[in-house]
From TrEMBL:
Species of origin: Vulcanimicrobium alpinum
Stored InterPro entries: Mntp/YtaF (IPR003810)
The protein's name in its UniProt record: Manganese efflux pump MntP
A Pfam family of this chain: Mntp
Keywords: Cell membrane, Membrane, Transmembrane, Transmembrane helix
Top-level taxon: Bacteria
Length: 190
C-alpha cells in the first residue's frame, strides 16, 4: 500500500471516528461502567463496518450501471452526508431524547444513526484506491478508539466537545468528498 493510499484511508477513518466520538462523549457524560463501554464500542464498530460494506455493495452495483461516473456519485454522497452533519450540528437537533444509548433499542438506534455516514464512505471507498480489507480494519479500529476516548473523556469534555466534534466530522467528510473527487479527476494517487 502506498503512502497516498494510507493517508486516504486514515483520513476517512478519522472523519468517521469524529462522529462516533461525538456520540460517545454524550453517553460518557452520564458515566458508564466498563462492560457498558465495551458493549457500546462493539456495537458502534459493528454498525460502522456493516454500513461500510453495505455501501460497498451499492457502490459496486452503481459502478456496473454508471461506469467511471459512479466514483463521483460516491464522492457527492460523502459531501451530502457531511453537509447534513454540519446542518445538524449547527441547528441543534435533539439527539437521544429518551433513549438509553447504552443498551437495547437506544443502542441499536444510536449505532445506526452514527453509521449512516459509513454508507456514503462505503459507496465511495471503492474509488479511492485502497484495498477493502485494509479500509474495513482502519474504520473498525477508528470506531473502537473513538468510542473509548469519547466515553472516557465524556464527563470532562461536556456538551461543547460533543457539538464541536459533530460539526468537525461533517466538515471533514465534505472536504474528503471534494478532495477525493479532485484526486480522481486529476488522476492523482490512484
Amino acid at each position: 500500500m502506498t503512502v497516498a493510499s494510507f493517508a486516504k484511508i486514515l483520513f476517512v477513518a478519522l472523519s468517521l471516528g469524529l462522529d462516533v466520538f461525538a456520540v460517545s462523549v454524550g453517553v460518557g457524560m452520564r458515566g458508564t461502567e466498563r462492560a457498558v463501554k465495551l458493549r457500546i464500542g462493539a456495537a458502534f464498530a459493528f454498525a460502522e463496518v456493516t454500513m461500510t460494506l453495505l455501501g460497498v455493495g451499492i457502490g459496486r452495483a452503481a459502478g456496473k450501471l454508471l461506469g467511471d461516473s459512479a466514483g463521483y456519485l460516491g464522492f457527492a454522497a460523502l459531501v451530502a452526508v457531511g453537509g447534513y452533519m454540519i446542518y445538524e450540528a449547527l441547528h441543534g437537533t435533539e439527539e437521544g431524547g429518551g433513549f438509553d444509548l447504552s443498551r437495547g433499542w437506544g443502542l441499536t438506534l444510536g449505532a445506526l444513526s452514527i453509521s449512516l455516514d459509513s454508507l456514503g464512505i462505503g459507496f465511495s471507498i471503492l474509488y479511492i484506491g485502497v484495498p477493502l480489507g485494509v479500509s474495513v480494519i482502519f474504520i473498525a479500529a477508528a470506531s473502537v478508539l473513538s468510542t473509548a476516548l469519547g466515553l472516557a473523556l465524556g464527563k470532562r469534555l461536556g456538551m461543547v466537545a460533543e457539538e464541536r466534534a459533530a460539526l468537525w466530522a461533517g466538515i471533514v467528510l465534505v472536504l474528503t468528498g471534494l478532495a477525493f473527487a479532485g484526486l480522481k479527476y486529476f488522476r492523482v494517487g490512484a
